[in-house]
Amino acid sequence: MSDLIVPSEHDAFRQMVLAPDLLDIARRVEHVRRMQGGRRWYDELRPRLRVARKFLVEITDRTLPLVGQAERFLDDVERWVQRPEAPLPRMDRIRELAAATLREGLPPVPRTALDREARCHRLAARPWIGRTVWGCPLGWLPLIERAEEQLRRFGQNGDRLWHTYSMEERWGRLDWTTNLSYPEAHVIQCAVAASEVTCLACGNVGSLHKSEAWHLTLCDAHIFLEEHGPPEAIGKLAYPQRTGA
What we know:
This protein is mostly helical.
């Protein structure tokens, strides 16, 4: 990852790359708590903790908002892994900060169907993305634009070698399948993780909601619309069509 980012920007990006790992650790801790699993479940947390520690020590600016909280959180999880009888680490604050970090620096959401169309055309003109971008809902389009900008500025291998196989919403998150390897793949990972905390219909802060029929990441207003509004209301917002088109 250090080869991908210029020195003046590496700390902010490393903080962003750290965020998905922190959210993953929090999910795993919650899973172990619910399952009341055996030693194997605790041991599987150790590799994730090592990866997060690696990213954390590379951040030189210790005043960044996620850094101090991440250090305390990882310390608490490591103590809990060593002694499962210890209190469960608190996860609300780390989840909040990690989600905010993943949403930093996003462009504005398209305001109209025409705006979305123009921006999709611009991304589709990038050979490694192509027409797959049309599968991205409106609220997540800024995630793709930010990722494309990061890779265009900092990518080491050149986009002639890159390819996107698919880009769509699946089970409430962005399914962006590429052939990118690390360090460039960190950019894709951050976009996917950001989709899990971003409303696919409007781009505001969202969370995963499930029903028997669907799994969608939506804000509170659009959850209400999905539950009480007309059929296909969310789909029409996420994939707007120009009037008369």
